[in-house]
Amino acid sequence: MTRGTNRADVPLRQQVYLQLRAAIEQGTFAPGARLPPSREHARVLGVGRNTVLWALERLQAEGYVVARVGDGSYVAPELDAWRGAGRRKGLPAIAALGLSRRGQLIADTALRWRPPTTAATAFRIGAPAIDAFPFAVWDRLARQTAPAQRELTAQYIDPAGHAPLREAIAQWLLVSRGIRCEPGQVLVTSGSQQAIDLIGRLLLDPGDEVLVEDPGYPGIRASLLSHGAQVRPVPVDAQGLCIAHGASRWPAARMALVSPSHQFPLGVRMSLARRLALLDWARARHAWVVEDDYDGEFQYGTHRIAALCSLPHDARVLYIGTFSKTLHPGLRLGFIVLPLALVDAFANAKALADRHSPGAVQDVLARFISEGHLLRHLRRMRELYAQRQQVLIEALARASRGALRLAPSEHGMHLVHELDPALSDSALARRALDAGVVLAPLSRYAIEARRRGWLFGYAGYDAAALRAAARTVGALLR
Question: pTM for this one?
Answer without folding.
Answer: 0.81
